[in-house]
Automatic annotation (TrEMBL):
It comes from the Bacteria. Belongs to the oxygen-dependent FAD-linked oxidoreductase family. It holds the Pfam family BBE. This is FAD-binding oxidoreductase. The keyword Ribosomal protein does not apply. The lineage of its organism: Bacteria, Pseudomonadati, Pseudomonadota, Alphaproteobacteria, Hyphomicrobiales. Its cofactor is FAD. It comes from Microvirga terrae. PROSITE patterns: FAD_PCMH (PS51387). Keywords: FAD, Flavoprotein, Oxidoreductase, Plasmid. Residues 27-196 form the FAD-binding PCMH-type domain.
């Protein structure tokens, strides 16, 4: 391999185990080599080496969503590539491949700006954005994170470093934004920021025994709210562990998550119908600086052993509500830690000015199931999630949100994207990655 400024690690090397680790403790990578780059040139060297060896390439930031175990692959671990540049006048950020959302949020906040980040601040910007990016804070009014990418710097399978935008490489630009990691190794990306220094947000936790009351109230309430209100509903069976806030520890709860980009007075008035449904166990909804938005979902920031999978729903009528209550409500025997239903619509349904490959526009709900436990319980964890999602199949949409697919899910990419979009993706794949080097994902195969 060409000399790299970063690290090149083989199995048995002292840092190999640390660098192959991912956020999900139940998922292990077994690559032939790990390259820890410090620059785009290092990424080029890694891709060129992999091509010469006919090895697949997997790019990893935190590994919140990794597909496959990378046997025989070259893994590119990007965490040392962590440069962030904020343009407060142009309201844009340029970040290197290894940057986390927590760092972007903190830097953007200094200029009174906010990104379209996810619910967990420890997620990497690149993978989240390439998969679409479903922001639970500003997405309903602004759309997917992928809609606001202005340019990317990538290394394609031929080892070339390319600047990709709507003018320079329109087809690749379309495919990268929504096509996940199928087309290139991203080394940097530039995207829009928004003048949002604060939100009215948080979560209202109710006793789980009131699941039906809260679900029906939320389902009737949220469609009439403005696009500046983003909300979700979650049934939670919280484990009795110190990482869980004491007020919630070991309890069966139902939660409504709120993120409102408007005045506190309007927000309080708007959510009052939810607050009166039942006595709250805990109510954290308040005016907050944007840098505190991770507290809305309060997700784990340290690695956890878990299994999760999601589907999209095309509708959520009364029968579907009844079924969800049956599956996860107070009379259910499930051990799922979380079943979350996110209400979409608004800008998530609108095609951006520069269209992209995101496939889930027009589907009004995202449903996610999460089971927590060690790898020795893998089949049980999978069965818990399957029971939820299979039970909701009568209302399942015809496309999938790629960021919510399981790491071992044998998902047909044509079913994820729909036949027309998949055909275009496969054609672009043939142009930029004809040998399918970037295949350790929910794979778009090169067109025949």
């Amino acid at each position: 391999m060409t000399t790299v400024a970063g690290s090149v690690l083989l199995p048995g090397d002292p840092e190999y185990d640390d660098e192959r680790a991912v956020f999900n403790l139940n998922h292990r990578l077994e690559p032939a080599m790990i390259v820890v780059p410090e620059s785009a040139a290092d990424v080029q060297a890694a891709v060129t080496f992999a091509a010469g060896q006919h090895r697949p390439v997997l790019v990893k930031t935190t590994g919140h969503q990794i597909v496959g175990q990378a046997h025989g692959a070259v893994v590119i671990a990007t965490h040392r590539m962590n440069d962030i540049t904020i343009d407060p006048i142009g309201r844009r950020a340029r970040v290197s491949a290894g940057v986390l959302w927590s760092d972007v949020i903190a830097e953007a906040a200094k200029a009174g700006l906010a990104p379209l980040n996810g619910s967990n601040p420890t997620v990497g910007v690149s993978g989240y954005t390439l998969g679409g990016g479903l922001s639970p804070t500003l997405g309903r009014s602004q759309g997917y994170a992928a809609d606001h990418v202005r340019s990317l710097e990538v290394v394609t399978a031929d080892g070339d470093l390319r600047h990709v935008d709507a003018e320079s490489e329109p087809d690749l630009f379309w495919a990268l934004r929504g096509g996940k990691g199928n087309f290139a190794a991203v080394t940097a990306l530039e995207f829009d920021l928004f003048p949002v220094p604060r939100l009215y947000g948080g979560a209202i936790y109710f006793p789980g025994e009131r699941t039906a009351d809260v679900l029906r109230a939320w389902t009737a309430w949220h469609p009439s709210t403005p696009e500046t209100m983003v909300t979700s509903f979650a049934v939670m069976r919280m484990p009795p562990v110190p990482e869980v806030p004491e007020a919630l520890r070991g309890k069966f709860l139902v939660s409504v998550r709120i993120a409102y980009n408007g005045t506190t007075a309007d927000g309080e008035r708007m959510i009052e119908p939810l607050r009166v449904v039942a006595p709250a166990v805990l109510d954290t909804v308040r005016d907050m600086p944007y840098i505190e938005v991770a507290s809305i979902h309060n997700e784990p920031t340290d690695p956890v052993p878990y299994y999760e999978r999601g589907i999209m729903l095309r509708e959520f009528p009364a029968q579907a509500q009844d079924k969800l209550i049956e599956l996860v409500g107070p009379d259910a025997s499930t051990e799922l830690v979380i079943a979350e239903l996110r209400a979409l619509g608004g800008a998530w349904d609108r095609e951006p000015a520069v269209p992209n490959a995101v496939s889930t526009r027009g589907l009004p709900y995202s449903l996610l199931g999460v089971a927590v436990g060690p790898l020795s319980q893998e089949q049980h964890l999978k069965s818990l999630v399957a029971e939820l999602l299979d039970g909701m199949k009568p209302w399942q949409g015809d496309r999938r949100y790629v960021n919510n697919l399981a790491p071992d899910e044998a998902a047909d990419a044509a079913a994820i994207y729909g036949p027309e979009r998949y055909e275009r993706l496969a054609s672009i794949k043939k142009t930029y990655d004809p040998t399918n080097m970037f295949r350790l994902n929910h794979n778009v195969a090169p067109a025949a």
